[in-house]
Backbone:
């Protein structure tokens, strides 16, 4: 399988065009910024270090009503009862431009449910940061609500701490869908305004009104990371199965789970044919912290 490798100072980035243009490895001097991919997991795109999410993020509970029609989306992953994270992470992408520190890839034929689109991602590596820019162009025949996001997988240890600000949180039901029609007050156990450890147990919640900044501290012998995300990435989703897992996810996305079926479709943007939706995420690292 082709691995596209970038290097800047001690930083190394490996991108897999064949698996959704996802990040297989991002490390600095051998210390991981993201959870590294292993070759024995090549059949599982969610074993990577970061996935691209388009033309929507997370689950859609069923079909949805749009422009007087009922639109349906079939499940796209084995074992999942609902469609999840669009199809960009499952498709092969094509390298269109490349240098030692930057790479641009294109997905020409994104197609899932009512969505038809073209996508482009640009990764730019610096010795102390990675910038990722994702852009979608609608190729659908009608106006369709689009979303996008990034799905980084960070290492988790007993040293891991997290800080970010948000306005509210969507509680989830037993199907991992929003349990309420509107986000609720953030409980003390999930208030990350000050730096704190992740919950010991399960967490899988979307936080509304995120300000686009977050800090991940990993301890004195690891790489701590500052996350910056542009508009429209104003929802942050935290996923961790618990403190026994060696990873957790902090996902900058444009909308909450199942947004197509929530009042007002928060965070989704309706694109006419030819219109574009784009966003950028930057990871900046430093050794130590926490």
Residues:
């Amino acid at each position: 399988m082709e691995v596209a490798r970038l290097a800047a100072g001690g930083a190394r980035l490996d991108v897999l065009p064949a698996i959704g243009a996802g990040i297989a490895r991002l490390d600095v001097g051998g210390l991981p910024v993201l959870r590294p991919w292993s070759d024995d997991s090549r059949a599982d795109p969610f074993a990577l270090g970061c996935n691209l999410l388009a033309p929507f993020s997370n689950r859609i509970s069923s079909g949805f009503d749009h422009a007087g029609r009922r639109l349906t989306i079939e499940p796209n992953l084995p074992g999942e009862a609902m469609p999840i994270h669009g199809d960009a992470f499952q498709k092969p992408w094509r390298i269109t431009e490349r240098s030692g520190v930057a790479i641009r890839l294109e997905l020409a034929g994104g197609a899932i449910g009512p969505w038809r689109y073209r996508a482009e991602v640009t990764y730019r590596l610096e010795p102390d940061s990675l910038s990722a820019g994702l852009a979608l162009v609608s190729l659908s025949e009608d106006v369709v609500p689009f979303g996008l996001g990034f799905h980084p997988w960070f290492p988790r240890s007993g040293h891991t701490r997290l800080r970010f600000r948000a306005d509210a949180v969507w509680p989830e039901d037993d199907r991992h869908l929003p349990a309420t029609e509107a986000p609720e007050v953030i409980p003390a156990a999930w208030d990350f305004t000050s730096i704190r450890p992740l919950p010991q147990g399960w967490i899988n919640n979307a936080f509304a009104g995120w300000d686009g900044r977050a800090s991940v501290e990993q301890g004195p012998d690891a790489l701590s990371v500052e996350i910056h995300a542009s508009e429209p990435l104003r929802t942050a989703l935290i996923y961790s199965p618990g403190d026994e897992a060696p990873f957790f996810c902090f996902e900058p996305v444009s909308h909450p789970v199942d947004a197509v079926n929530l009042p007002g479709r928060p965070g989704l943007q309706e694109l006419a044919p030819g219109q574009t939706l784009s966003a950028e995420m930057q990871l900046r690292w430093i050794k130590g912290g926490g």
